[in-house]
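Write out this protein's structure.
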Amino acid sequence: MKIKKITAATMPEAMKRVRAELGDDAVILNSKVIETGGFLGFFRKKSFEVIAAIDPLQKQDVKPIIKEKPKPASVSVPIPVYQPGDQTNVLHAMRSKTYSDLPKLSDDILKEITELKSLLKSESFKPERAQHSYPEPIKQIQRLMEDQEISTKLQENFLAELLEQWYLTGQRANKEEMMLFFHTKLNEFLSSMDFGGLSFSKKFVNVVGPTGVGKTTTLAKIAADCVIKYKKKVAFITTDTYRIGAIEQLKTYAKILNVPLEVCYNLDDFKEAKEKFEDFDLVLIDTAGRNFRNQQYVQDLQQIIDFSNEMETFLVLSLTAKQKDMEQIYQQFSLIRINKIIFTKADETSVYGSIINMLAKYKIGISYVTNGQNVPDDMMVASPEVIVKLLLGVV
């Protein structure tokens, strides 16, 4: 399947380019409105982004067949065109390829599938040792998972599902079909986990994390989103009196957004600020970043901030960090009740396996993924589809 992303000023122009570049048989997988340009993310221009595809095998399927004798024939159903915004299009596309006319699998093959799944999910199995024995479409997906640094345990589970699907399709599925199946399985795996931005169920929102992960910029993006999109009355509190220029940076954002800012040096200051912002819808709290290996820093936070039932706390992690470091950071900050994780700097790496690894290991949700410095646009509300697109390299 050939996939193409096209951006145009209007939707008719985008569709015209789709037909010109892919032909009349092109499939619309997804479409959305994007914004570019502007100053600090404001005054941006709207464009239309369309992801289209064409199945080069589709025309080859329609050929005269000379039958020597009547026998069941494999039927390949063309991939249908879906309406823009249909988030289930990938699953439907996979299911549009029907294998119901395949000969019934023998008991021996079904037994072999069961044994292979058990082997793949066993603790003694090492996927790197068995790589040479996989069908080529599965080998390519395994290499993708390794490149994305998905954990060995998760790889084993997905490989078991992929191999079973391979046998169920009569060992005839190509790379594109297996990739669509893998896409579906990733979505299913992630669908049971907690995603989404602010719940607005808590008045106070706190961001914590190590130094250099972009907490202040992320907080400004959240604030701009709340002010512009949700029309909320927002205020800032900062306890970052440690880093030079931190207060001035947040003051700049506060001035642009026209929201008040209070600086707190201790718990008494924090309580006074809470009272001052009693009439506000949302109070966003910035904290200082320190060496995450120093547990004293986390304990110091509890002496400045009142982590009461009114507060929602996000741990900010950079996707450029090592998996081991992310886990150590999470464990250090577990002294504080973490509601969700915010992953930053998605634009500074091409490896995103740590996202799914952290989700699987700690059963923690994700609120946002940031991918640049522009306020407020370089931030995505986390969802299974967003994570799958990062992992599979769909831009």
